Amino acid sequence: MDQFYTSDVLVVGGGLAGERCAVEAAAAGQNVTVLSLVPPRRSHSCAAQGGMQAALGNCVKAEGDNANWHFLDTVRGSDWGADQEVARIFAEEAPVAVRELAAWGVPWTRVRPGKNSYFIKGKRVDIDEPAAKAGLIMHRDFGGTAKWRACYASAGTGHAVLYAVDSEVIRLGIDVYDRMEALSLIHDGDRCWGVVARCLRTGGLTVFLAKATVIATGGYGRIYGKYTTNATINEGTGAMLAMNTGQVPLGNMEAIQFHPTGLWPSGILVTEGCRGDGGYLLDRDNHRFVAELEPEKQELASRDVVSRHMMQRIRDGKGVDSKFGPHLWLDLRHLGEKHLKTKLREVWEICRDFVGINPAQEMIPVRPTQHYSMGGVRVNKDGHAYNMRGLFASGEAACWDMHGFNRLGGNSLAETIVAGRIVGEQAAAYAARQSLDVSTGLVERFVKVQSDRIAMWIGRQGSGPGIYGIRDALGEIMIDKVGIFRTGNELEQAVDELKGLLLEIESATLRSRVPGANPELTFALRLESMLKLGLITAMGALARTESRGAHCRTDCPQRDDTRWLNRTLARWPVGAAMPTLSYEPVGLLDLPPGERGYGGATSVSMEQSLEEYNQGVEKAQREAGRLETSEPMGSRIQWGAWQQADPSA
Amino acid sequence: MADTQNKARTLKFDIFRYNPAEPDVAPKMQRFELAEAPYMSLYIALNELREQQDPSLQFDFSCRSAVCGSCGMMVNGRPTLACQTLTADLPETIALHPLPTFELIGDLSVDTGRWFRRMVEQVHGWIERQDAFEPTAEEERMDDATAEAIYERDRCIECGCCVAGCGVANVRPDFLGAAGLNRIARFMMDPRDQRPKPAWFEVVSDADGVFGCIGLMACDDLCPKDLPLLDVYGYLRRKALASALTPNAKDSSLS
User: What is the value of ipTM here, to two decimals?
Assistant: First the structure.
């Protein structure tokens, strides 16, 4: 072991969720340390483009917006898989989060008074923005929302927000260790005491002890290989930490979002803001097929719905042929070069740099691509992990769970800040109550597990399979058999093939044994856990014999609220060959399950009454491992307040 | 879609190799060959080299879409983002070196993270204000043109290309470089920042700041995000001069 550090609160992950958490905990007077795979400003939060949802209601098309509307849209978007109390907390606090970011320097696009020209449902519309609202934070339209709600800075919203929050981290003097990867939590079966980490500069092991540890490492999209918008670092390193305790459950790992407009074939994200600002989706005949299939929301139905329409169009032979396979078109030409170069500037640059086109003159080749992990480390409304005191999670790495089975565009950027504030405060409060009474023997045991694992990889001789081939096989299995459309047969095949890869990796060998960080070893140390995350995803999808949000079983097309209005919890007991799945109620229901208003799917209604369902929630979640919260369950629900949102507007 | 690949080439990569964990092995250039493929970027090419030919090769990528700033390197002598560079736009022989001016981590990987954190600490690259955030208040208003002008400078991704290509930064390690000056300009024009003007000019108006620049302006040519670095330079010099002449004047104009 090279070094040994202690702090009150340790945040694993230097993206927005982690850094906002760190700022809150530091402001509460706790000593905070952040670990990050990359310098924090290179975290994948920087790639968020189009916007951050908050119901400020500042422009004409946002008039009357409030937290009730945001709550309604979020729960409907989740296909009722969300924890509605968390969705309510989120909707109430998002406006504060956005305004705080304004105070920290985010250059939000502002309301321009007077005549503004917009494209709405295929038509140019001129709207007078009133002088009374001049200079307030502007909104753009996004999918699955009743009002224009996404606050934005051109198409670089994530970048602008990340730089503002990281500036606060630096201003507060918070210690950040970049190129530092947490390999394992240190825990005694009851409480978490920090992590064993590996330095990606030197390859040395370091211990970071803390009273409270927060996992904020983002998603696990890279289990889909190259078929993802995610950065190369989004390999689920935080979900692995929780999974490998054997006792902290991962929630709803089968809930995987596919973004309708990944650039084809590279998979680079092209923001939903393109369709929010009036862009069209066209097939090979230049036909606006989504507008026809979704007359109400048109291209701005929720992402799960639009992605399914697109993949079905491709399956129907209406895709555009290319040497990399069929794709569809995103048409922004009618928005004009000035709009593209200012309000969608990053899109314009990506088109120029990666496909060599000018989107003011040419159409953009797109195809649905893995984008977001709704599932993650299961936590209660304080962000405290199930079954492990002192462990917290926040942002995409967590299953908090405001997204259920489908996240709305712009809600993740907002979640990083809203949850970061709450989880940072809770982690700080927990740390303030604790002393660091951890035994050195325990720490040594966890260090030894990791040093043995490294020695195993370095020492394993022979010419077994290489790790990159196994990684590629994982990606192909996930996209082919655990993708947008799923069937029991294919999922069974996926499970079998992933089990095969878990056997194969037992004989895999490195090609390089150079001293130092050794990039091949770095990846090898993640790969087995990536296979396990893939297997948990496939098994959860196989078991869930219904269709809900992004989880679409073509052999079980209905949402089934009698049998499946619940959350999957997956644990991988230490040393076990396979994970175990269990289920808990989604949370207290305020908005009763019903129609989403797009997508056209049908459902099996609940057999229980709402009251019967709600009566069982607290006990069932406690038995599933939920820890006590700072306030009682349900304290933040505003029962029935959603009825104040006007359903006809 | 632009299809620039007609005949298949065999690319020759000459790559700088040095692993600080093996101090006895001298730095060297290593030759690799790779069959070019359609739309091949240096992100694709370097990963293929590592996965198929030499797994010890060190380099950095993350977003692979030119927004995270991880992959700055010298490509045939010019600092640029590797993920954004298509092999089709390069000659058959491609020399790759790590960015100068930053500490070497290994091969093509350099420590831009620590450099930029130190720079932000040095210029106080954050909004400085005395009043506390009021959670229930409406946001402060801002003219959208001002927001756009701030965003234009906020877009810097801290890739380090402007620093690596700077004649001054290559000989003077404390020089803020274009990225540092741009960061100052970004906060200086932000009406939310309440620090008095003289505080700025302590940072800007010495040889580590705007008066250290000798005007070669390679930064402006090299910036992968097309930031208006020439304008930034002019803006700061004008502001520094105006401040020296009228030190107590309140001036929030953008020009």
Answer: 0.95
